Amino acid sequence: MQAEFRARLEAHARAVEMTLSEALAPGRRSERLMAAMRHAVFAGGKRLRPYLVIESARLFGVEGEGPRRVAAALEAVHCYSLVHDDLPAMDDDDLRRGQPTVHRAFDEATAILAGDGLLTLAFALLADKRTAPRAGARVKLVGALAHASGIDGMVGGQMLDLAAEGRFESRRRRQGLHAIRHLQSLKTGALIRFAAEAGILLAPHVSREEKRALALYGEALGFAFQIRDDLLDIEGEAAIVGKALAKDHQAGKATLVSLMGVEGARAELSRVTDGAIAALDEVFGARAGALADVLVFNRNRDK
Length: 303
Fold this sequence. Notes:
Largest sheet: 2 strands, antiparallel
CATH architecture: Orthogonal Bundle
Distance between the termini: 19 Å
Oligomer: single chain
CATH superfamily: Farnesyl Diphosphate Synthase
Radius of gyration: 19 Å
Order of helices and strands: HHHHEEHHHHHHHHHHHH
Structural class: mainly alpha
Shape: globular
Number of strands: 2
Number of helices: 16
């Protein structure tokens, strides 16, 4: 089953990368800026978020260029966030996906502009008629991605994360499980929820029950994804994960694993995973197998 999933994941990744490659064609653009943006986008990665977009749309019979363009837009936002997260003023990382981060491969100013370029490219992709024939659908997609990536989503979560490090106070405040979950639901979970629910915005007809099921799935997957990331930060191998590990632990920052313990986090990961799979099956049955596979993959991934 996981071999089939990996084959689908790779096929979707190739399709989305073709869309991104077309969008990032040199043309009459700054060669250095385009090289930095391509360095950020084509440095590898699982492309799980694009996979979720394509498979959530397929759940409602929507396939082709539209879902691929939405998936490319989401991946552009994700890659922009990584470029900016890696900057010295943020996480100060030298490696990303086993390669030099953009500010190391180029310079800080170029990295900032590359991130800015990827963020704005995302909304250009969504606003294009090729993404969805209905203007209303395009407006909803733009609004939903802006919400997920902005102050009420990823950017807001990143700010909470900096505050949790004690950046703005002389003494770090102790974070409880509720605060950590809220932080991660914004920083990591918001884009995953958008990916899981993107198919709803592309489909002409979706029932209230189906909307609720995908919303719960996206929330559960975002939580499960963060638990696995926190476990990998403690147990993973840097050469496989492709970045420096244990930085949160060394800094004494609270994480899901530090609060639950390794065994507690593993148990919670299994509970959330099994619950989300059951909830999907209850509404969609075998139709949602491609989405359920992501939960199983996440539980065992090594990077």
